[in-house]
Amino acid sequence: MKDWLEIQTAYHVAKLGTVSAAAEYLGVHRATVIRHINTLEARLGAKIFRRHSKGYSKTELGEEFLSVAERIDDEVAQFVGRTKIEKTRITGDLTIATSPPTYPPTIVAATRTFRKKHSDIAIHYSICDTPPKLEWGEAHIYFHFGPKFETPEYVVRPFLTYHGGLYAHRSYIEQHGKPNSVDHFTKHNFALITPEVYSPPNDWLREHAPNEKVILTSNDRLTVFRAVTDGLAIGCLPAHVASQHTDVLPVIAPLPNCESVCWVVTHVDMHRSTKVQSFFQCLREVGIMGLTDEQIKEPLYAV
Fold first, then answer.
1. 3-state DSSP of the chain
2. Mean pLDDT across the stretch 35-44?
3. In this predicted model, what pLDDT tens digit does every residue of 40-60 receive, in sequence order?
4. Beta-carbon count within 10 A of 240 CB
5. Average pLDDT over residues 175-193
6. Considering only CA atoms, which of 240, 241, 212, 207 is closest in space to residue 227?
7. pTM over 0.70
């Protein structure tokens, strides 16, 4: 609008009653206010204000101008308000990826809270055998179970820490006894996760269990967990998983220096985005970000 600045100035004179008040509100000199009024009146070919010794008063046209300008000002204020709301509104997609194993209870709990706050966003969840390329936008948030990423443009923070131990089911112990030390491993059977799967406790067990006594191996954690909870063999479990089974008993728990870490990874360009930070806040609200397995309130695996 060609005369918008002049209209705005004249409106504040009409609303506030004096040139000085309008100049102070707009942060300009009195001479600027007077020049704007003169320019607008020249364009209109009519007077909006009467000049007199006490200042400016509105003409009949000025009263009509004030009414129109107030409606414009109200529309602009509503537009600005809607814009501020839109800036805090999260829409579009949020893509979450995890490396195996998955953590449905923790992430789903946060997702439920997140969706209550932001009902206009769609969430995509995937399990990735290879890390997604965050710089290509393949995921907004990646939960990585394994060694810490060292990629410079990634923001990497610990999500959960698990303490593994060696466990056996009560039925196994009743049949085979319980080893009192590593020296007695030659008399027992073991279930192991294969070496390519990240698991510090299983790495420890692989070093100490005789090869001929390893009766089951799998790249699937749940299979190994089941072998232990069903009494087939001795094996490694996270402490929070073992605690879900009253008949699963510790053999050596926790294992020394065998912490497993799940990292939450974001790209530096996305880390501070509203949607990512809002999801992190939901993780904190449900009480699961940065906890150890002793603090986790629900199992991460349906064993």
1. CCCHHHHHHHHHHHHHCCHHHHHHHHCCCHHHHHHHHHHHHHHHCCCCEEEECCEEEECHHHHHHHHHHHHHHHHHHHHHHHHHHHHHCCCEEEEEEECCCCCHHHHHHHHHHHHHHCCCEEEEEEECCCCCCHHHCCCCEEEEECCCCCCCCEEEEEEEEEEEEEEEEHHHHHHHCCCCCHHHHHHCCEEEECCCCCCHHHHHHHHHCCHHHEEEEECCHHHHHHHHHCCCCEEEEEHHHHCCCCCEEEEECCCCCCEEEEEEEEEHHHHCCHHHHHHHHHHHHCCCCCEECCCCCCCCCCC
2. 85
3. 888 888 888 888 777 788 888
4. 21
5. 94
6. 241
7. no
User: What is the identity of the amino acid at 231?
Assistant: G
For residue 268, give both structure tokens: 């530096």
First to last CA, the chain: 68
Mean pLDDT of 260-289: 82
What are the structure tokens assigned to 79, written together?
Answer: 């537009």
Q: Which long-range contacts does 242-247 make (Cβ < 8 Å, 24+ apart)?
A: 242/165, 242/167, 244/299, 244/303, 245/169, 245/303, 247/169, 247/170, 247/171
Alpha-carbon gap, residue 59 to 55, rounded angstroms? 13
Query: What tokens appear for 43 in the block?
Result: 């364009």
CB 60 within 8 A of CB 71: no
* Residue range 266-279, pLDDT digits in tens: 998 888 888 888 88
Count of positions (residues) in the chain: 303
